[in-house]
Amino acid sequence: MKVTVTGARGKVGRAAVQALQRAGHQVTATDLGPAVHERELPEEARYLQADLTDAAAAAFVVRDADAVVHAAAIPDPLANPPHVVFGNNLMATFNVLEGAVRQGVTRFVNISSETVPGFFFPERPCLPVYAPVDEDHPTFPQDPYALSKLFGEQLMDAAVRRSDIRCISLRPSWVQHEGNYERNLGPQVRDHSVIGAGLWSYIDVYDLADAIVLACESRLPGHEVFYIASPDNAGGHDFAAVLRAHYGQAIELRPLTRTDSSGIDCSKAHRLLGWTPKRSWRDYLDADGRTLPGG
Question: Ranges for the NAD-dependent epimerase/dehydratase domain (predicted)?
Fold first, then answer.
């Protein structure tokens, strides 16, 4: 297929470009920055510079595409004013999706977020109703980032009602790569009293990229939402024990498939996408949360 990847210079977008190319797809990469001659992206990828908050630019980058992977976004609500985060993320998603619908693109992969339920950047305390969290968990976001991602999913719902496009929204957990495992997850590995915002969940960027490829190739109808997280938690802790130690009975504990379970249930992605993660923090860190030699 011809696949356009937005946000192609970001952590997720770059991995998606590489995975799609390995799978044999022809990729057009797009991002805000100008083209450079250094090998930021694989040489086989065509690169287009575009500000996706501009509707004409968004329509331009998806022309002739069979599928679109929309990974472009301001990645959290902390480093920009709220109106900038919300406006950028929502309008970029609207414009890219609108362009895709109008130009007859048949598949759209929307990179949403695990923050959609609302317990990551709340101004008032907010806990999951139950854990592990799955796609049926209610959503009550407070911050502009999570709101923009929830509204993005609703845009997908509207698109499949009015056109023949098929949409998949992926909600990745905290995305890690070989360069940031120790900084981000090391403290949780060393000390179970360090609480991760996603109930100690995470996802390796290359496992996420595999899920993106499967989503592009999927023939599922309508719009489906999938959580994407590693099956284990950061640190390999006894999930039930640490959940009770930190939250008592405030969060309902649902059945676990393993003792060191993630705080996110990805069984829907396994069942409907055929996605199976292959990587763990253990491939990068030792038991003390330090980078393994050669890692």
Answer: 3-219
